Amino acid sequence: MKKLFCLLLLSCSIYAATLQLATSSNPSRLNPILATDSASSEIVGHLFNGLLKYDKDSKEIIGDLAQKFYFRDNTTLIFELKRGVKWHDLEEFTAKDVLFTYETLISDKIASPYSAEFRFVKSVKVLDKYTLEVKYKKPYFKALETWMMGIIPEHILKNEENLMSSSFNTHPIGTGPYKLTQLEHSKNIELTAFDAYFEGKPKIEKISYHVIGDSMTRFLMLKSLQLDIGSVEPMAYERQLQKSFFEKFNIYEKITRSYTYLGFNLRKKKFQNQDVRKALSLAINRQELVDILFFKHAKVCTGPFLPGSSAFNKNVKAPTQNIEEAKKLLKKAGYDANHPFKFEIVTSNSSQIRPYAAQILQYQLKKANVAVTLRVMEWQAFLNMVVFPHKFDAILLGWGLSPTPDPYLFWHKDSDKKGGFNLVGYNNPKVNRLIEESQSIIDREKLSLKWQEMFQIITDDNPYLFLYIPNSITAVNKNIQHIEPALSGIWHNYIRWEK
Questions:
Q1: Residue 294: strand, helix, or coil
Q2: Contact at 8 Å (CB) between 233 and 357?
Q3: Bridge partners of 231?
Q4: What was the pLDDT predicted at 29?
Q5: CB-based contacts of 146: which residues, under 8 Å, 6+ apart?
Q6: Residue/partner pairs of 406-414 with CB below 8 Å, 24 or more apart
């Protein structure tokens, strides 16, 4: 009996040392310079470090792998690296790894949207084992943010012929607080605390990600305590949770740094008519969308940069629904009730909200004699068969933005390429020029004015219908100790959490 009791205690201890999480889709590549989907990016964040990172309030840039960093002049950046940092295979991290990561990113061996962030780097030079000199072609407003990119190991990958299909992408070796110990696609992903992590071994021994595509299943697992942390949809929060749930979970809510949009494929002739895009914008009711889907847990999105950032243009308001004006514009373009404008909206099932949003948009657009068909796909299929090959009429998708946005990645014509984030093929010469001019502006006030001008032009062009900015509602098991909410969220100190 005593032996059984000890075994039970051991079992409870092991369970308590595991953080149970869920992800809606399989990660595509667990490599920081190739991870573009949310599932990959989230897991990569546990496995790798950049030279720099934001502080817990996303206001200041602080060192991560870098012990010290400073500008020698406007175009020369010096990094002094932390010593004694180990890769997961216990090899030492050095300046050679940073140089290797940079050289890989700018090479033609990979297709990565992150390569664009290094376009103004003139050279990276190893001064000694722990010191690097980065020279820029000209001053660059995101010179520091660029080096938040996760660093990859030179000693493992220097002879890799094809990094895009490398086994490293499913067997990664990083410097992060956790290392990958299990990867079962569509089942379970297990991370184990790295004993030699340079900031100290995490207090929680394991993180277990359950790959659950269905949002209702994830919600039921959360309610039954099979998950420790999970997102709660506004409908469930307002209508489906009992008092007993709040006795077990703490709730943390904040506005996200992301927005959802309906993006038109501007490579297709039918979307190149600006009157058609304006008509579609006038035909929808964004506030109704927010009210139905989110209650009070979201706000209408008015453009490409988010409130609170210096790029936000507060003078641009969301269009008010005007069905009659939408019909007139469509009539001008050759469409009416007998010959309706037709297109397909494609989205994924990784979000419980977006398929419903697509249905509401379909209903709203029908009032203006627009015939919309819908297709909802599994996340990876959606990315690989629709989004990246640009095989769509319109996509319902979202972007998460950094506190310092880079319009080049989403709105410059040169980002309309394989692996680029200009998914809809947007090309406005004036916006291209403004982006190019803004890249070397260090004065934040002048930069802000350029961004706000872009905001107005892009919104008027309607390459996207900007829809909503959701709040994140996160439920956290009350058994998890030492959570410190900050402007960036709850995860900034997670290696100190205990369960």
A1: helix
A2: no
A3: 474
A4: 93
A5: 117, 118, 121, 140
A6: 406/117, 406/142, 406/145, 407/304, 407/311, 407/431, 407/435, 407/438, 407/451, 407/454, 408/116, 408/435, 408/439, 409/113, 409/116, 409/117, 410/304, 411/304, 411/435, 411/454, 411/458, 412/436, 414/116
Q: Which pair of tokens denotes residue 257?
A: 């740094």
Among 219, 298, 296, which Cα is nearest to 259's? 298
The percent helix, strand, coil of the chain (3-state, each to 5) is 35, 25, 40
C-alpha 91/C-alpha 113 separation (Å) is 29
d(CA 252, CA 87): 33
How does strand 341-348 pair with strand 394-400?
A: parallel
Query: Is residue 458 a contact partner of residue 264, using CB atoms and an 8 Å limit?
Result: no
List average pLDDT for each run of 10 residues in the chain, which is 499 residues long.
42 64 92 92 97 92 97 96 98 98 94 91 98 95 94 96 94 98 90 98 97 89 96 90 94 93 98 98 97 94 92 96 98 96 95 92 97 94 94 96 87 92 97 93 88 97 97 96 91 96
- pTM of the predicted protein model: 0.81
Structure tokens at 355: 């398929």
Residue with tokens 């470090």: 49
Q: Was domain 2-27+169-254+477-496 assigned CATH 3.40.190.10? A: yes
Looking at the chain, the domain(s) classified CATH 3.10.105.10 span 258-472
Listed in order, the ranges of the chain carrying CATH 3.40.190.10 are 2-27+169-254+477-496
Tokens of 446: 């002048």
Please tell me the predicted confidence (pLDDT) of residue 2: 43
Contact 416, 426 (CB under 8 A): yes
Specify whether the CB–CB gap between 393 and 343 falls below 8 A.
Answer: yes
What would the DSSP string read from start to end of 424-449?
T----HHHHHHHHHHTT---HHHHHH
Q: List all residues 6 or more positions away from 274 whose beta carbon is below 8 Å from its beta carbon.
A: 461, 462
CB 70 within 8 A of CB 78: yes
pLDDT at 271: 98
Q: What is the DSSP string of 7-62?
A: HHHHHHHHHHTEEEEEESS--S---TTT--SHHHHHHHHHH---SEEE-TTSSSEE
Q: What is the pLDDT of residue 5?
A: 39
Q: Which two tokens stand for residue 493?
A: 């100190």
Fold type of domain 46-168: Dipeptide-binding Protein; domain 1 (3.90.76)
At position 439, the amino acid (one-letter code) is Q
Pick the CATH number of 258-472 from 3.40.50.80, 3.10.105.10, 3.30.465.10, 3.40.50.2300: 3.10.105.10
Nearest to 48 by CA among 63, 73, 25, 30: 30
CA distance 385 to 391: 7
For the chain, give every residue range classified as CATH 3.90.76.10: 46-168
